[in-house]
Specification:
CATH superfamily of the largest domain: Spore Coat Polysaccharide Biosynthesis Protein SpsA, Chain A
Strand content: 15-25%
Shape: globular
CATH class of the largest domain: Alpha Beta
CATH architecture of the largest domain: Alpha-Beta Complex
Number of helices: 12
Structural class: alpha/beta
Number of strands: 11
């Protein structure tokens, strides 16, 4: 494949999958606020008009015949580009300010992220930036406690709800929806871990490994983007979403927690499946979710007993 970059110093990288509803808005905003950026769209096997719309809006398009996942598509684009800095941008994320300061911060620190807002410009607290998850954080997520009691002390700490989102400075884990990475950092870390397939926790894992390698992610509230949120994910069946989320969460725990802590997360995953399954069947008024939750139970149960570091795509799909 020919290199898609030659002269530009920054790339905006948009990973798409059936994103026809939002991709034009994303690319239009980039043309307005980051006209010097080369724009690359990696499409993961869309069956809608995403690829045609991206090409019509001037992006360089890498079109995959299947879904390589977010991590795989990021690595694919990094491998065939040469710019010093690369901005990861979700297709439902539309930049709303110039990005010069973001580029400079990324050059200095290795990673930099801006502020995500809703359509009215209100900062998206709890999503824009987070701390690295502890086992307690993940267990509370599994049981839905953080949704029911959002201001609990563990969730306040995890989601930076104790921080003014207009305060710039270092953060642990910015959202991968609006994250700029210096090329040498990606090279040092050997890219994103493609075992987080197709979505979830690949950005958390990357930022955690970057921190361990001595890099600091810099948060700039002055660089803003409007984030619609989960447009491609919403098109997935709810039971499939649950499966992908559980698998990636357990993979993160296996990779970064000690044996006893990891098994505590796995046990919580097993126990949390039952109330989620009951709620799913009530919500859909039938037994359809049962099959997917049984798959999740089988996976989580096996990982509880037989710890594995790598799950691979074929193990859970």
């Amino acid at each position: 494949m020919e290199d898609v970059l030659s002269v530009r110093t920054s790339t905006a990288l948009v990973i798409t999958h059936n994103s026809e509803d939002v991709v034009e808005g994303c690319l239009t905003a980039l043309a307005e606020f980051a006209p010097s950026f080369e724009v690359v769209v990696v499409d993961n096997g869309s069956s809608d008009r995403t690829v045609g719309l991206a090409r019509r809006n001037g992006a360089t398009v890498i079109s995959n015949s299947d879904n390589r996942g977010f991590a795989g598509a990021v690595n694919q684009a990094f491998s065939c580009t040469h710019t010093e800095t690369v901005l990861l941008l979700n297709p439902d994320t539309w930049v709303s300010t110039p990005l010069t300061a973001l580029v400079e911060a990324c050059r200095i620190h290795g990673l930099a992220a801006g502020q995500l807002t809703d359509q009215q410009g209100v900062p998206q607290a709890g999503f824009s930036i987070r701390r690295f998850p502890t086992a307690a954080n993940l267990i509370l997520e599994l049981f839905g406690v953080n949704r029911l009691w959002r201001r609990n002390p563990w969730n306040r700490q995890y989601r930076y709800l104790d921080r003014d989102l207009n305060q710039e400075g270092p953060v642990e884990q910015p959202a991968g929806a609006f994250l700029m990475i210096r090329r040498d950092v990606w090279q040092t870390l050997a890219g994103f871990d493609e075992d987080f397939w197709p979505i979830w926790f690949e950005d958390v894992d990357f930022c955690y490994r970057a921190a361990k390698a001595g890099y600091t992610a810099q948060y700039l509230a002055s660089a803003k983007a409007k984030h619609l949120g989960g447009q491609s994910i919403k098109k997935l069946d709810s039971s499939v979403r649950e499966l992908y989320w559980y698998v990636s969460l357990i993979e993160y725990a296996a990779k970064h927690f000690g044996p006893s802590t990891y098994r505590g997360v796995c046990l919580a995953a097993v126990l949390s499946i039952f109330p989620r399954m009951i709620l799913g069947m009530i919500r859909e008024r039938g037994l359809r979710p049962l099959g997917s939750y049984c798959r999740i139970l089988n996976f989580a149960g096996r990982r509880l007993v037989f710890r594995q570091h790598r799950v691979g795509r074929g193990t859970h799909t």
